[in-house]
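Annex B, item 7. Sequence and structure tokens for protein A, then protein B.
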Amino acid sequence: FDKNIQARAKANLPKLGRELAKAAEAKGALYSKDPVRADGQTSAFQYFEAIGDFNEANRVMLKVVHTKLDDLEFFKTAWDVDRSRHGPRDPKTGEQKPYTSPAAYRQELQKVASANADRLMKEEEKDAAGLSGNSNDVAMATMRSLEKLKKTSDWMKFLPDGDKPAKARAEQRGDTIMKRADPMFTQGNAMSYYKFAESPKAKEKAAQLEKKMKESERSTKKSAEKAKGAATTEKSEADQKKFNKGKADLEKELGF
């Protein structure tokens, strides 16, 4: 008799879990990282997880993702949702294989990642317009442009082709700067782009630019030392002339 009650109770758990999940969802308690939220409620996601209804848990997760479209950290949580999941236990071996969500779930997430990447790439184009301004404009534009490209890269890593478009654009921005008439004042910004781009060509360009910058630094330092030396010599000659004149005046006064 006790075993029957236990079996019936166990059989009713999924139904109870779904009812509680639906009630939580109706109240807006969609997701929480922990089983119980700070306000004491259990989220719909956690109820579905507890009864192993992963499809419904994924549905709720996607619902939350669409309310936080530009929240990369939450997106990562949604992407890794299967990390602690397991499928049904094998009655013969007792083994539980890792659970993998349907492809449609990842595809929906990739749409979000792609939309964010496209938005950021368009914003970066506006920032990069400053690369045609003066050296101060270039520095500001580089900072803003690279910030957008790095964020774009973070979103693109979840797409089939990865972040190649963001890296390629960074290399193009570096090339644009190097074509300017004042590369001496802006080449450091080009270096920032090449280092982010990381392609074999970009690395080669960065190495050549670094060598050129070091040579320029040595040349500037050498010129400064030469100018300093010339100034010291000139001062010494002036001091000597002044001393000689003072000596001559004194001798004249004393009658020598």
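Protein B:
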Amino acid sequence: GGDGSNNTPVGNPVNNCGNCNVPVYTAPVLEEEDVEYTIPPCQKLNNLFNEPDPNLKAIITTLKTNIDVNSTGEIGAVLKKGRPTQYLPATEEAQINFVTNNFAYTFIHTHPLNAYPMFTWGDVLTLYELKNTTSKYNHLKGLESFILICKDDNGDFQTYAIVMEPGFFNSLDLIFKNKNIPRFKNMEPADIAKALDSELEKKYKNESNNTSADYEKAFLQHLSSLASNVSLYKANVSLDNWSRVAVNTSTQNTMEIPCE
């Protein structure tokens, strides 16, 4: 039973956390205008910093304290339109449950110290499911985002975000709904994400062996090999602005392009 909401467990399968029993939901059929409805990512994310309620900076500051005291689990929060922020209790494993409904528009979660400090395909699937829900409600359209708080290899806290750029949702539809990748033809979305995370784990592991690991590049390059209009955003230390992280085609190094 229930009220029709989607319960989307989020984990870090690239760290063997399990994430094996993820419920699967069929993406609703969307009108073309709904699919491409979007707010510019920089504007969307900076609005989260600029709006007094919810106070995203305070939320991030609160959640990140869990990383040092809970080395294997996660903690999270849900931003809801016209409702108080919902804080989710800390878990013991690198997995947390989010519920999509007619109020939720942004999910925030931490990665533990034993996880790679970057998004996973499981996280991407969660954003995809969130978009499936927000697109049904006029007051939520275009607001969806998924935020990650983590600690990098240097011991510094980082805050990242992924959002739905125009075209990104369509390409995820092809992967998770239409199963256009032959090797995933008979697999459910959760299993597809798990398989892709196995591939992504190899990329992250290779980076971890480098003197200066670039997990941002590994994430962007792996997603871009399968999906279009992939983007990654990173908050500054003072948590009052974002930059788009991109791979320089000449140097193959990542660079940050500040939001204006």
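Comment on protein B: Residues 1-10, 15-36 have pLDDT under 50 and may be disordered.
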